[in-house]
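Teaching note: in complex prediction, the entire set of molecules is handled at once rather than each chain in isolation. The prompt given to students was simply: 'Predict the structure of this complex.' The entities are:
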Amino acid sequence: MNRRDILRRSAAASLLATPAAGLLSGCATSGGGDKNDAETYQGTKSAQNPLGVKEDAPLEVVIFGGGFGEEYAKAHEAMYTEKYPKAKIKHSSTQEISKTLQPRFVDGTPPDVVNNSGSSQIDFNGLVSQNALAGLDDLLAAPSLDIPGKTVKDTLLPGAVEVGSYDGNFLVLNYTYTAYGIWHSAKLFADRGWSYAKTWDEHIALCKQIKAAGIAPWTYAGLHPRYMSWPLISTAIKLGGPSVATAIDNLEPNAWKSDSMRTAADAWHQIVKDKYILDGSPGLDHKQSQTAWCQGKAAFISCGSWLESEQKDVTPAGFNMTIAPTPSLGSGDKLPFEAIRGTAGEPFMVPAKARNVAGGLEYFRTMLSKKGAQDFTKKVASLTVVAGATEGVELPYGLSTVVKALDASGANGFNWVYNNFYRKLERNLIDAACGEFFSGRISPAEFLEQCQKGADSIAQDSSIKKYKRAA
Amino acid sequence: MKHGKWPLIVTFLVPPVLLYVFFVVSPYLQAFQISTTDWLGYSADANPVGLANFKTLWHDDYVWNALKNNAILLGLVPVLTIVLGLFFATMLAMGGRKGSAGVTGVRGGALYRTVYFFPQVLSVVIIALLWKEVYHPNQGLLTSAAHAVGLPAPTWLGDPATAFWCVLAVMVWSNVGFYVVLFGAAMSAVPKEIYEAVLLDGASRFTTLRRVTLPLLWDTVQVAWVYLAIFALDGFILVQLMTNGGPNFSTDVIGVRMYDTAFGSETKFGYASAIGVVMFFLTLSVAVLSLRVGRRERIEYS
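The expected output is the structure of the full assembly:
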């Protein structure tokens, strides 16, 4: 046997070892399953301890190590141990939530608190349909930790419970309050004497002016083009009212091809047709496009209110980023210009098979205390779902514009949740359609057709559990 | 010493075989089993559904689209990599034909060899990020170069018309270095006299490569072919990091489809396992085929 034989044989042998990706997780379904023998921790409920926390029960918390870091969670954990000094908290932080935790869910030994977020988030549809999450109703009914006379539910901003509910069961605590809008630099606009346009026609006129001044009016995250679906859908909802969003969320037939969506898509096509988008945007990811925007290469960008903390390192001093609602299409709009998409985000959950479910809920109660919420806002410059928790906290410029926009929007605020119900629909299918549309390769009609085709494919997939929400 | 043979074999072979069965064979068997269930990955409940997943797969346009891309990769990556690898290795081994010395490499061969090997030293993740910057549509090396000579530049990874070829180019780039070294090593085992004889007969460099080097290196080329074919059927890491299958699924490959189905936008582990099983058989058939088709008489030096 010569060297070549050996090479050949090793090649043949390694066939069995590759491709490595072929090895899904090694654990099988038959793995652990129900560990009935495992002890769960439950204390006795009392006025002082409404959730029945066992005071010396250990608590395991897994945090998504993303834009918010993990320091805020350590602070919440310290508050928890202050109340339960005998409890040992096991803290960890990862960006790979699904890969890290999947085997533990199967094994029946998940952590007690999971911050299921980021690009490796576990699809909630899958978790909910497998009954993997504990209900949070006890938490809502429990009295607030430090806001006297109110239950936890009373302290939450409107919409916080709905967005974490599946078929009416509240399962996911979305901790931050996020506004989605169009951002610009107040400094750039003041320097040039521009002002943000309230109607679409004025917006297009302003884009023309901006382009003439040598700046691209728009840029967007071309590699994650779903960012542009947000203002487009918002425009449609403001035109046609919140039922536009309900239809999309409930996968109603032709929801994406409603008159409102059609008008909105036609309107947005203008910025593509007139080349009001920074050259090369289709090849930029979210960070790159946001950085181009911070560098003054483009005037507008679509993003949520995490933008300010995400761009902290590259934003020039005095840039004064400002969020604004999408322009109105005209006087026929059902919602006023001020209406903006506001929703609870940053999901936290307690797995149904966690050993210390009561502790997990109590941890949420700590997060939702005024002290916990204020500490979060101070540490990561983001709002929480706790009403009035920003009192006495000095907010950075961008976040203060978010607070103002949400105040002005008030009861006209709207939201949609199809992205929570069907992660694949937004992340893959609408995303791809937006990429084609905003790079000018397809017409508005084709765009809506592609979106509808995606929604229909979800609707027809019997292996995906469907959820409905009320209007 | 005959009686001492078995203990030795058992000691040396059993542990690795056990490890192999435990860590490689058993997950495969499990994947086969999971692929016949509707397992959603986050509970222990899985109902057997027979071959339903494979039936769905047969009608899944996204899977077919990914397979089509894999097929193009399979057709191009091995050929391009091997041709470039052979070319560079030949140049390094016998590119220079100065004077009467006969067979020498081009000047600075050692340096080139090192440079070609660079991509092999870098982790695939670094390569993906590096090229993402090279393909940056505004500040990237390629765009700047195009603008410098007054050419319009595409948006590279942002355009479905170019993205796939951009990724393919990176795949070739990151693999060539290894095969330069592999072919170089094989060439150094070829007796020099053969080349001197060829040289005396007045053969051109191309003829030498085609008629002499390639037949003598055939086994090595075949191994390279199998490895590259497997790589082309996978291609997962580069694609996932550079484009994640986008824009509009133009760079999607079967590995990304599988990962996305299990860990990405859905949690359909049963269905993802079915994709994995299909990948397994595709890879196996491609490897067996290329070993069979490429079989030739072995040349023995005496």
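Point out the following to students. Residues 179-342+415-460 of chain A form a domain with the D-Maltodextrin-Binding Protein; domain 2 fold (CATH 3.40.190.10). Residues 6-28, 30-35 of chain A have pLDDT under 50 and may be disordered.
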